[in-house]
Amino acid sequence: MIDQLARVFEGVSTFGQMDATTVAIRIALIALGLLLIYLSAKEILDPLILMPMGLAMALVNGAILTMDGRLTNLFVDPMLAKPDDVLNGMQIFFLQPVYNLTFSNSLIACLVFMGIGVITDLDFLIARPFTSMLIAVAAELGSILTFPLAVAFGFTYKEAAAIAIVGGADGPMVLFTSLELAKHLFVPISVVAYVYLSITYAIYPYMIKLFVPKHMQGIVMDLRSIPKVSSRQKLAFAVLAGTVLSLLFPVAAPLFASFFIGVIVKEADIPRYRKFLDEVVLTGSSFFLGFVLGALLSVSVVTDPRIVLIMILGMVALLVSGIGGLIAGVVTYWLSGGKTNPLIGIAGVSCMPTTAKVAQKCAFAVNKRAVILPFAMGPNVAGVITTAIIAGIYVGLLR
Amino acid sequence: MEAVNALIFVMGVYVLTLVVALFVGVVIVVIRRATAERAKPKVPSVEEGAKKEGAIA
Is A263 inside a domain boundary? Predict the structure, then answer.
């Protein structure tokens, strides 16, 4: 009788087949999934990615069963490598086709990038290219300084680079780098990155209060000082920059191509493509990105004890990048004779458009007349480009 | 020692990133200049001037 009940309620009975540590991790992952759903529903975290991620995380760790003598689930098995196993897996695990056809080859990151390209505003980047690019380079400090830190903690160069790129605060780039350099750490790094990216909205305002004097935060910038940039100039930039960057970093060319095709569709004003990339491609890929990442975070997959270190290093990377951006913002304030609001520095951290919105929100909290969002978008877009450059260099040198 | 080597390596990566970022900046400036020259107002041709005069008349 008990045996029959155990077979019927297999998700519960599998607790008995695990050691105490694994049971604790499994319960913790279910609880974390439920917490993500709660915080997303309250809009404390970004619900677009974290709601499906939390749901999948809770479900996949509940739905563990025995198959061929081992504990698994029917969602996805990222450990399948041989072509025959993958083909068989596609008949069993319902998310396996999505994983193998869009995650293993970084297609999902490219699809997200196409959507980001179509919502990108290039005006300030083209109007003030050097200011934007230099702020963005400073805001990559976390992607740089976390690397030796990770090596000091025992990670290899490849693993350290995959972790450090979290400091670029660019989800698709984190996916791409970890898939290229440290596939075995792809799940924990990507999940940590996406959870952290959604809490930048909550953490960075405190950092701004800590590092930037209040009288600087409310500086009003003159919107008329942004020269008019034509669509033709933006199109020319997208075509040329895409070509040049692909020429320099062929390993990152799919990401450059995806980002700039989005920009071109926007600037060429092709409404049907624009709507398709924004409403279908970006929305669909964000949903599956969150859901599959959550499903990958199963107790049978997350066995690397270094996940705690990855969590610490990921947070360090994002905080140091924020500090780098703010320092660049303050330097720009001094160089411009006090005409530039230093908060645009935080937008150099390329979590687009979240960090630009954070800059605007903090400026607005101090001065209701301070409109800095159009200025913050310059370093924000430049941040996407500099993160891609660093990822290209890391992958090119270390793969 | 390993961490120091990693720091030296990553500083090289940072410098390279800075150089490429500045290069992207130069590309933008070149595009701006090139398109600004094209955008200069054209001297109206004799026919266009005649048409305009006709229109005023």
Answer: yes
